[in-house]
Design brief:
It is a single chain. By secondary structure, this protein is an alpha/beta fold. The protein has one domain: Nitrilase/N-carbamoyl-D-aminoacid amidohydrolase, CATH 3.60.110.10. Helix content is 24%, strand content 33%. The protein contains five helices and 15 strands. The protein has a seven-stranded mixed beta sheet. A six-stranded mixed beta sheet has the order 6-7-8-9-12-13, with helices on one face. A hairpin with a 4-residue loop joins strand 14 and strand 15. Helix 1 runs parallel beside helix 3. It is globular, with a radius of gyration of 16 Å. It starts with a strand and ends with a strand. It comes from Agaribacter flavus. Keywords: Hydrolase. This is Carbon-nitrogen hydrolase family protein. GO terms for molecular function: hydrolase activity.
Length: 244
């Protein structure tokens, strides 16, 4: 099994342009024989809480059908971020496309206080099965909280996939925390972060992978677009950058 954490700069208000970048990165993951690729928090819209309503969609929006087709044709799971309409409110969503299955949604369960004026929390955990492994999605702030990873471990998850939107200081804290929980719980942790301006900060990239001993196996830097790949067969990882 091979998993990819994507890194890219999304442009606010340009959903179609962002979709094109997601497609290109997904095709790179396919070329590397990956079984799954996941993207940063709110990757299709860029992270802008105040303007999230302008780019919010429903889970079954037809603009996302291209990802179901990519999933079906290439036997790859695709997890991407977008503000999702929930009744009359919004959620920080991760839409999950699996081959020959109906698309599903994981919504951020624990919101940062800055997000509370704009979003409502998700109500349940979602786990992804892949090659006899259990993968637990986590979205930024909640991935830094021990109860969230403990819940994943109690569900027998052995991979923790953190989709984030972090500035330099957030990345530095994340590197310490993700290494700690990887070693403490004996799980592989992967972080997918964005690049460039987002809300009132700058996303600092540095997407990375930590093995079950807490070692950082591979990463991208704060400028590269691309993917970081983990190969479970031999517990190795590498990064590859591309021009978007």
């Amino acid at each position: 099994m091979k998993l990819a954490a994507a890194q890219l700069q999304s442009k606010s208000g340009d959903i179609q342009g962002n979709i094109s970048k997601h497609i290109k990165l997904t095709k790179v993951a396919v070329e590397h024989n990956c079984d799954l690729i996941f993207f940063p928090e709110l990757s299709l819209s860029n992270y802008e809480a105040e303007n999230a309503c302008d780019s919010a969609i429903s889970v079954d929006d037809q603009n996302l059908q291209v990802f179901q087709t990519l999933s079906d044709e290439n036997n790859i799971i695709i997890c991407l971020g977008i503000p999702v309409k929930k009744d009359k409110a919004l959620q920080i969503g991760q839409v999950i496309f699996q081959p020959q299955q109906a698309r599903s949604l994981y919504a951020k369960q624990i919101l940062h206080e800055d997000e509370l004026p704009y979003f409502v929390a998700g109500e349940q955990s979602v786990y992804i099965g892949c090659d006899n492994n259990i993968l637990a999605p986590a979205i930024c702030y909640e991935s830094m909280l021990m109860p969230h990873v403990e819940q994943a471990v109690s569900a027998d998850a052995n991979f923790y996939l953190a989709s984030v939107a972090k500035n330099k200081e957030g990345v530095e804290r994340g590197y310490v925390h993700y290494a700690k929980i990887a070693k403490q719980f004996g799980i592989t942790v992967m972080m997918s972060n964005g690049l460039g301006p987002a809300d009132n900060f700058v996303s600092f990239g540095c997407s990375a992978i930590w093995d079950e001993q807490g070692n950082c196996l591979a990463s991208l830097d704060e400028k590269q677009s691309g993917i970081v790949v983990f190969d479970k067969a031999n517990n190795t990882a590498y990064s590859t950058s591309i021009d978007l």
